[in-house]
Automatic annotation (TrEMBL):
A UniProt-annotated Pfam family: HTH_1
Family assignment from sequence similarity: Belongs to the LysR transcriptional regulatory family.
Presence of the UniProt keyword Transcription regulation in the record: yes
Molecular function GO labels: DNA binding; DNA-binding transcription factor activity
Descriptive protein name: LysR family transcriptional regulator
Record has Transcription as a keyword: yes
Residue ranges of domain HTH lysR-type in the record: 1-58
Length: 306
């Protein structure tokens, strides 16, 4: 059975005559009649009752025409989707919680497709803004750094917003510091929490109460001297290079790019933090990611798997 035969049977029913249907379909009457009979033989049922006064549907024919119309409607929707998809350029919109390597991988993607029609968007923002942008379909995927503290609460909120969170990497927290930090010239590969207790700490602004509470839980363990809140990466790096402040974040050796930092900025692992940091991605639950989103996430996963 072919789709064209379904269309032919529906046209015969609509016109009430094989002759009129043949004219409408620009077919010879004999060809249309032969095609309908072939369809009926294949189905093992008659679709039409033929008489000198015209044609009518059998009980099987009534069901066949109803289902046939649904099939053609779905096929039309698929064809419309394909046509629309072919007309639109490849696109990717990513929301990221201030991950240094994410912007470099995004730039690599831009370079790979610089000669093709694509629409790309990259946003750095607070955790809550990343979650909201994916939930409201402003961005297709989001990348987050999350402490594993109170995970049932923040993962539950993400789930309730219709999102799926997939953990990619878990690691110990690190501090970043500039040449004015008293720990900068220490030759030890690690620092402990007590060494951080009197230092200013730089954090990113977070308006959502749940995510703000996570930061407070982290800072309660660190007991910093002062808080400096910023909303952009450039200011944070400038503060690191010009003050004694530190920034607490996740670090992966393969995901570090020296060009992202001003000269003199170093990293140290915090050995007794009492918590770990995760990197994971968000997407709408049930959503099939586009080609560029899949490619971008694959590059993230490959980098963090090294």
């Amino acid at each position: 059975m072919k789709l064209e035969q379904i269309r032919q049977a529906i046209e015969v029913y609509n016109t009430g005559s094989i002759n009129r249907a043949a004219q409408s379909l620009y077919l010879a009457q004999s060809s249309l009649s032969s095609s309908i009979k072939s369809l009926e033989r294949e189905l093992g049922h008659d679709i039409f009752v033929r008489s000198q006064s015209g044609i009518s549907l059998t009980s099987f024919g009534v069901e066949f025409i109803a289902h046939g119309r649904e099939i053609l409607k779905h096929m039309a929707a698929i064809e419309q989707y394909i046509d629309r998809d072919c007309e639109q350029p490849l696109s990717l919109s990513v929301a990221v919680y201030y991950l240094f390597f994410a912007s470099r991988l995004f730039t690599d993607l831009c370079n790979r497709y610089h000669e093709e029609p694509i629409a790309l968007n990259y946003v750095e923002d607070a955790r809550s803004a990343v979650v909201t942008s994916v939930a409201e379909e402003q961005c297709e995927i989001g990348l987050l750094t999350m402490p594993d503290l109170k995970k049932s609460q923040w993962s539950g909120m993400i789930h309730d917003m219709g999102l799926e969170y997939v953990r990619i990497y878990t690691g110990a927290p690190y501090i970043m510091m500039g040449p004015h930090c008293p720990l900068h010239d220490d030759t030890q590969a690690e620092v402990n929490m007590a060494q951080l207790s009197s230092l200013p700490i730089i954090t990113y602004a977070e308006p959502h109460p749940l995510f703000a509470a996570l930061d407070e839980e982290v800072f309660h363990r660190v007991q910093p001297g002062n808080f400096i809140t910023v909303s952009d990466r450039g200011t944070m790096i400038h503060l690191l290079s010009q003050t004694s402040a530190v920034h607490l974040g996740v670090f992966h050796p393969s995901a570090s790019f020296d060009s992202d930092f001003f000269p003199g900025i170093q990293r140290r692992r915090v050995r007794d933090a009492g918590f770990m940091l995760e990197i994971g991605y968000l997407k709408k639950r049930g959503h099939t990611l586009g080609l560029l989103a899949q490619e971008y996430l694959q590059s993230v996963q490959e980098l963090l798997a090294k």
